[in-house]
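Title: Request for sanity check on Protein Skeletor prediction

Description:
We are preparing a figure and want to confirm that the structure record we downloaded matches what your pipeline produces today. Could someone re-run it with the sequence below and paste the raw structure tokens into this thread? We only need the token string, no images.
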Amino acid sequence: MLHPLITPKMLYAFGLICLSLFSYTSASFPYFGTKIGALKRLHHGVSGDVYAVDSRTLFVKKFNYDGEAPAAYFYVGSTGKPSAVGGTRLRDERGGTASLTKRYRNKDITLTLPEGLTLKDIKWFSVWCDEFAVNFGDVTIPNNLDFPRPQKLNGLAGVHGVKSDPIVVVDAQTLLVPNFSYDGEAPDAKFWVGQGDRPSPNGLRIPDENGKELPLRRYDHKTIVLTLPDDLTIFDIGHFGVWCEAFTVDFGNIRIPKPLNVPPSLKMLGISPQSKLNCEVLYDDLAFEVRWAMAGDSIVVQLVSKLEDNHYMAFGISPNKDRSVMIGSDVVVSWVEKDTGKGYAIDYYLSDKSQCSGKRGSCPDVNIQENTNSVRLLNAAMVNGYSIVTYQRSLNATDRLDLPISRNGFEAIVWGIGPLNERNETSFHTHFNKNNHFIDFGRQPTWNCPTPEGSKPGGEGNDEDNDDDDEEEGYPPAAKPTGNTGIPEEEFYDNNRAQALQSPNRRVENNLQLGQRRPVPTPKPVANDGAWEIPPIQCYEPEDGVFYAQMGPTGGKHGYSAITGHVGWGISWFINGLLIPEIHVVRGKTYTFVVEGGNNPEIPAKYHPFYITDDPVGGYEHKREEEKKNIRIFAGVHRSRSGQVIPTGVGRLCNWTPDADGPPADDYQSFGAYQRTLTLKCDPGEPGVITWKPDRNTPDTVYYHCFTHRYLGWKIHVHDTCDDARYAASEKHAVRVPAPVRGDDELEAEESIRHETKMASALLRLSRIAY
């Protein structure tokens, strides 16, 4: 069962019109859907392979017909054999109703069944001549045909507030993520796919719903459509989720089951998105366009315009079918906040041309009567300076303030552009239609707008929204492939492009790209002004040489990032209750680390094995082999006989947890004040323990880190004696990678043992710290 407000019929329209058309190895490639069979070669050179794309769409690969018969048409029917009697004539691949008078030579075509008819209702497909009642070629539709259809998977659930309703695989390149949420607080979160069941650095970034690969912003229950790039398909990947690339952290993922019987994307069929969409220009000076697609009993509409700040665009139905009349019209007022990217689509009733006052004027429906907002916002974006808002509404009137939209014939429409008032409601129209304007919403898809050229979301030089109106900006695309596909422009949407896009060479390149381990990007350094003073742990403290390593928050702008000069991803090590303190130790003394960083590798965001290394970054598990060769590990791992490096510093998870109702960390002027608001919460289980004895071969500076994630820890200073003046805390500065040192004793570690946590001792040491 799909999302309750999303029907299978509207999934294609939704993906098409939201800038995101472009969407197991048991599927054969190239993939065009479920193969029904080959057309029987009876007359006039008719031939081709017929595929079921979905419940109402047929794809004919390499269709041939000589074009010489006087009245040939495409037919489907439920009778025992092909015939016009009891059959249904189909429109051709262009939506036309005329007979097939042109010649077809190895042409790929897509045909759609009429509304209300599915492949379950028919038994054959034929090229039929009406004038002579002759079957030129046909194929039988099996009774048990398992045609492709959108598939519902699990929803996301993870850390940093990542969650969603069950995800729908709309087609082989399109994912619908309903009610997606993410707190936006991590520095480098991306939508991510890869091979296998679990995310890793070997995966690929997926552009967001606007075609960009920037770190994800905050989402609050937003329904989005994502498109797999280039010719990557759902059959190539084993998981999808949100991944913090710079810190190699899984924020939440789902497994992609195999096999998935989903439709091919329109791109895979070589179909231009514009051929499936309608578009009309409303006001050329501001590039105001309306784009739409019918979706069962509803319509999906996209409004596009180059608006000034704090301006709206409105579009709706006139109460008079013969004239464009503002008063009494049913319109949708929409806009996008430039600063936040948040979009709005509000159902309005215009009882007057004035601003809304009480229940009179140009008012949101809900101001007049409760529960009458009949519009559902699907997507909103600011792309290249253009506001783009996509919404859905019923074709029927759902309350007394709504007007129906006809499937047949022209409707008079109204539109307007103007500023919002202080209540974020319409104030007046600066631009509106002064003449009658009519649209046939139920027509065959026709694109009467400029062809989307120029900059594409996610393309070169479009890493940020361009706010400079003086610069030449790209026209907002409707659904053209995003990003650099590496395919010449003229190759898009030609007759045999489906084959070109799914060539074996492309698929081999794709799989190689997914399987490669690439360097993990280094986060940009951040300013370290305003860092909290964290008391260093001196080499004579604690007396028993026991350190308690637990997890906790990074401390906002005064914490991890300001202390280290590197951005954190929300959590970091706490040692003896202190946020990443610098630790001073003496060579020849044995130290014990009681580790409580999590012990379940199945939940990567809560699994933080502790280890000590000369690498200032951490995250050994996800490094490339050439990087590992230059890294020494002194404690927290064990090398198996096969040479595998296994973390041993694992134990139950204990978190220093902030007060959910308290002020943010940024508001505290000292760590001491902030620390007193934290509560230590531990999962059931036992801690892990590692021991370490630095010696003469240990560098003067090493680091404590997380084995599976980068940038969670800080420095350990190693001295010959406690009298060494260098034991004082070093100055704060950005991490610098030292020249690698490697010896035969690369891994010097002991395996973990278990014992009870002595939290009373740890808290006693905390009580001695002055703030």
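Thanks, this matches our download. The longest strand covers residues 57-65.
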